[in-house]
Amino acid sequence: MLKIAYSTIYAHPLPAGHRFPMEKYALLPQQLMYEGTATEENFFDPTVFGEEVILSTHQPAYWEKLKKLELTKSEIRRTGFPLSKELVDREVKILSGSIQSALFAREHGIAMNIAGGTHHAYSDRGEGFCLLNDLAVTANYLIRHHHASRVLIIDLDVHQGNGTAEIFQNVEEVFTFSMHGQSNYPMHKEKSDLDVGLPDKIEDEEYLYLLNTHLNQILERFEADFILYQSGVDVLKTDKLGKLALSLDGVKARDQIVLKLAHQNGIPIMCCMGGGYSPQIKDIIDAHAQVYRLAQEIFF
Questions:
Q1: Which of the chain's ends, N or C, has fewer CB atoms near its CB within 10 Å?
Q2: Distance between CA 102 and CA 227 in Å, rounded?
Q3: The model scores a pTM over 0.90
Q4: Histone deacetylase domain: which residues (predicted)?
Q5: Which CATH number fits domain 3-299: 1.20.1530.20, 3.30.450.40, 3.40.800.20, 3.30.160.100?
Q6: Burial class for 187, CB neighbours closer than 10 Å (0-12, 13-18, 19+)
């Protein structure tokens, strides 16, 4: 059975006028159930893990400042979010959802987190709507608890996974792959194990060729036994922040490549949602929903 992490705290409201589309976290489960891709039985409310899992990845001094709400104004501004206890609790819930989804993926081959993909969080700071890095925390959890030995992180959000790259820059057990808009945020890129910087306005055919080529090369050099997939949909042509030009069908083909790669090679995969900032919320939900439909088709 496909297991999907979801909590109402994912859609915690932000102050009026904030541009981050929080409503997608509530609308996506509704859409999946309306169309029959999922039922209530597929969803689970994540149990919060203790802070030791956070400290496996993030610096103790940063975590202390975060949980005590003692970030400076400049540190808060860098995250893009107004800081609050509710926001910190939300981030902890999200990373707990990613860990639990990964554990379900070991059992069922795949599992999903409606939120997650907070790849801009560094070991010692937050950035770009990300306070804690759920991808990194999950990879470290899997390795430390002997659920995996070699984790491949496939990050196809339009923005480079700079925080993830920094956290794993000297870790041989984790391979970080980021395919992103070269001229997009962050302007200073960290060094992933493999970075593919894309030109503005790249379309489906060239994008999918590059993705296929690089994924095949990665599997030849890195024998992954677990995949974490950041499936952001800000690569869409309609996205107001993305600068790329993928169609809805192109995003579906992208997700299909990744999920089939995992399924055909017998590698468990956990998928988290990442970014999406199209002006029409329908475009965001349609694009995100595709990976859940594919999960059901390919794995079940």
A1: C
A2: 9
A3: yes
A4: 18-282
A5: 3.40.800.20
A6: exposed
